[in-house]
Amino acid sequence: MISHKKFVFNPFQENTSVLWNQMGDCIILDPGCSSKAEENQLLDFIRNQHLRPVGIWLTHCHIDHVLGLDFCLKLWKIPYYLHPYEAQQLKAVEAYAPAYGFHDFKLPENDGIAIESEIIDLGIEQFRILFVPGHSPGHLAFYHSESAQIWAGDVLFQNSVGRTDLPGGDFSRLEDSIRTVLYALPDETTVHPGHGPATSIGHEKKFNAFIPEKKRNPSF
């Protein structure tokens, strides 16, 4: 069984998630905490729930999703995981962070662990790793089929999709990721996006104005 808690952090209103199993092992997904108050909010929750952080999973490495990365790594001494294509995206944050007012941003002292498999484990719980580029070159989503939930980062939002005007963005790739990967999941799948409220695959296939489900031509 997987439990999760969402936090809304930083001026970009980014969704950071803590996922944990029945044993209390947890991962932090896209740590975006950018102030002492937000860091304490995350820390207090993990301590009060008696959770044991075992890793950090990154859907992608835009600034709003990694502002708390160095804090988490130094506090818990845990590894972080990312797609190989996102390594350069992460390194670039240090250069442009001051333009957004984050003058104290620090890159991790160690390289992350490149995700190159199709499965990642949280104890006995398994997540399928889905490669869904378009918003970012190495964007990943983490799908837990047993509970019909996916943590999809900035690919698919409630009634919207991720922007593609940032470096490495590509709308045609984003559209393909949504149509061929995300829309292939069961309609009842809950989507936890990187910003805003949760939605479902079925809802987005019907109501997403940016990338609606393609209708099949009737056969005669």
Number of self-contained structural domains: 1
Helical residue percent?
10-25%
- Uncertain regions: pLDDT < 50 for 5+ in a row? none
Counted by DSSP, the helix tally is: 5
Q: At CATH's second level, what is the architecture? A: 4-Layer Sandwich
Q: Provide the structure class.
A: alpha/beta
Q: What composes the largest sheet?
A: 6 strands, mixed
Assign an overall shape: globular
The overall pLDDT, averaged over residues, is 96
Task: Say how many strands there are.
Answer: 14
Give the radius of gyration. 17 Å
Strand order, main sheet: write it out.
1-2-3-4-5-6
Enter the CATH topology name.
Answer: Metallo-beta-lactamase, Chain A
CATH class value: Alpha Beta
Please report the distance between the alpha carbons of the first and last residues.
Answer: 47 Å
Beta-strand portion reads: 25-35%
CATH superfamily caption: Ribonuclease Z/Hydroxyacylglutathione hydrolase-like
Topology as H/E string? Answer: EEEHEHEHEEEEEEEHEEH
